[in-house]
Design goal:
about 300 residues; alpha/beta; about 15% strand
Length: about 300
């Protein structure tokens, strides 16, 4: 069982941003992730910093804490340039990077470069090409590739500190994404069933997530892989009654226990941001960080 956190890149580095990352290490979190967006939802009109520079600064400010994205997507990324940044980041951090990666969605990132928002099928098509090409770029010295959506011409790389490459945590719930997670992932990520977020119950959410875990198991079995080889990460904040998870230590232990029983190996909670959807009591958050797993192991 692992407990991780998500630090949204909304605070200037020298005005509290750095302190959040170093505090995450002091609290004993396994990994501190950040979102890889250009802007996001209600934070659109305020500060929002780039994921890769933020993680680079966090790597320099910490020593043991793993770092990563939840999640990077093809919405504004190209595999060739992303691979170069990831290899550099993995080197700077001493091999502490996990790439959370997903197909992307609608919203600001989907249209900011001037394109029409892709349909779910188009996102799945691009993701299906993006992930295998990125894998090659991170593991091969020179890559030439001509695809439907992406190309590479003698793209040269030196490889990751982590071998054969840094781990992929693939966010997926549909059949095509789950196949990618089974084939390329070292971990799988879910936020639950979005259809239940506003009108569902916690019990319905647990049942839906159980179904996702079963589908992941089938996707692994179809290619002869043991699903136990994949870490399973639940990103909290998007299931029914999202604020209840950080309401108290007991509430977290109850929530986490139900999901660890489903086979999850890691739960990620958001660092509190006042006056936002992620508002929470900082003292409770830190109590969960330091005592939550011990309570679950009793």
């Amino acid at each position: 069982m692992r407990l991780s956190t998500v630090i949204l890149p909304v605070r200037p580095w020298h005005q509290g941003g750095r302190d959040e990352w170093t505090r995450a290490e002091q609290l004993g979190f396994h990994t501190a992730y950040t979102y890889d967006h250009l802007s996001w939802r209600t934070f659109r009109d305020g500060p929002w910093y780039g994921a890769v520079p933020t993680l680079t600064a966090a790597a320099a400010a910490t020593e043991r804490l793993r770092l990563g994205t939840l999640v990077t997507s093809p919405n504004f990324r190209h595999p060739v340039t992303l691979a170069k940044e990831l290899i550099s980041l993995d080197d700077i951090s001493g091999g502490r990077i996990t790439l959370g990666i997903g197909a992307g969605g609608t919203g600001f990132d989907a249209t900011v470069l001037g394109q029409e928002a892709w349909t779910p099928r188009e996102r799945a098509d691009r993701f299906g090409e993006f992930v295998p090409l990125l894998e090659r770029l991170l593991t091969e010295d020179s890559v030439t590739y001509e695809g439907t959506f992406y190309s590479a011409v003698e793209a040269r790389n030196s490889g990751c500190v982590q071998r054969p490459r840094l781990p992929f945590a693939v966010a997926a719930t549909g059949p095509r994404g789950l196949k990618l997670a089974a084939k390329h992932g070292q971990a799988w990520v879910t936020t639950g069933d979005p259809k239940l977020f506003e009108t569902g119950t916690p019990e319905q959410s647990v049942d839906a997530i159980r179904g996702q875990v079963e589908k992941l198991g089938k996707a692994c079995a179809d290619i002869g892989r043991d699903v136990a080889e994949l870490d399973k990460i639940l990103l909290t904040g998007f299931t029914p009654e999202p604020g209840k998870v950080l309401e108290s230590l007991d509430a977290f232990v109850d929530f986490a226990g139900k999901h660890f029983e489903l086979g999850f190996t890691e739960i990620a909670i958001h660092a509190p941001i006042p006056d936002s959807d992620f508002a929470a009591d900082q003292a409770v958050f830190e109590q969960i960080a330091t005592e939550g797993l011990a309570q679950l192991r009793r």
